[in-house]
Amino acid sequence: MEEQNKSAEDMLNEAENAETFSGEAEEVMGNDPETAADSEVTEEAGSSEEAEASEADQETDGAEEGEDPEAEAEAGTDGNAGGKKGFFGFKKKEKKDPRDEQIETLKAQLLRSQADFDNYRKRTEKDMDAKFDLGSKNVIEKILPVIDNFERALAMIPEEERESAFAEGLDKIYKQFTKLLEDMGVTPIDCVGKPFDPNLHNAVMQVPAEEGQEENIVVEEFQKGYIYKEYVVRYSMVKVTV
C-alpha cells in the first residue's frame, strides 16, 4: 500500500511538473515577439493558400460548366442589338419618342405648304400672263384699223407720186407701225391660196371653183387678219371657192 501511494504521488508530481513546464513555455513564446510574428505569418499564409485553392477550384468548376463571362457579355450585347423579346419570344416594338413623331408631322406640313405655295405661285404667274396678253390683245385690236388706213392710203397713191416726200413719209410711218407689231409678237395671217380654216378665216364670199382649182380654197383677202402669240386678234376676211 505504501508503494502504491508513493507511485501515485510520483505520478501527480510528474503531471504538475509537466503543466508547469508547458505554462512556462507558453509564457516564453508569448513574450518573444519574433516567435509570435512567425506564428501569425504562418497562419496568414495558410489562410491565403486555402483562399487561392478555393478560388482555383471555383474557376475549374466554372470552366467545366462552360461559363465564359466574355461570351455571356457578347451574347447579352447581341441580344440587345436584336431588340427586346417579349414573354412569348416575339420582339417588342420600340415605342417612338413623341418628339420624333411631332418633328415628322411638322416636316410633312412644311413640305405640303411649300408645294401649295409653289403651285399658287405658278398659277398666279400664269393668270397674270394671261391677263397681260388679254390686255395687249385688246390694245392691238384697236391699233389694227390705223394700219388698215395706212395700207389703203398707200394703195391710193398714183404711180407717178410714189417717190414724193409725202408718199415716202407715209410709207415710213406704216413700216414703223408694222415693225412695232412684229416686236410685240403680232404676225399677219397668210391666207391666199391656203385651205379655208374656220379658226383663222372669216368667209364673207363664195365663188365657184374654176377648172383645175380645188374647192374650199381662199382665193382673195378683203381684210388682213392678225395673230398675237396663240390668240387670234382678228380673223382674215376672205373669199372661198366652192
SSE layout:
Blueprint: H1 2-31, H2 33-65, H3 69-81, H4 98-156, H5 165-184, E1 186-188, E2 201-207, E3 218-223, E4 226-228, E5 231-234, E6 236-241
Parallel strand pairs: 2-6
Antiparallel strand pairs: 1-4, 3-6, 4-5
Helix pairs in contact: 4-5
Rounded average pLDDT:
74
Low-confidence stretches are 1-6, 21-46, 60-83
Q: Termini distance? A: 184 Å
What is the architecture of the domain at 185-242 at the second tier of CATH? Roll
What's the total number of strands? 6
Helix content: 55-70%
CATH class of the domain at 185-242 reads: Mainly Beta
Describe, in plain words, how this protein is organized in 3D:
There is one protein chain. With 242 residues, the protein is mainly alpha-helical. The longest helix has 59 residues, at 98-156. The protein has a domain at 185-242: Head domain of nucleotide exchange factor GrpE (Nucleotide Exchange Factor Grpe, Chain A, domain 2), CATH 2.30.22.10. The strands form 2 sheets. The protein has a 3-stranded antiparallel beta sheet. Strands 2-6-3 form a 3-stranded mixed beta sheet, with no helix packed on it. The chain has helices at residues 2-31, 33-65, 69-81, 98-156, 165-184; strands at residues 186-188, 201-207, 218-223, 226-228, 231-234, 236-241. β4 and β5 (231-234) form a beta hairpin. Helix content is 64%, strand content 12%.
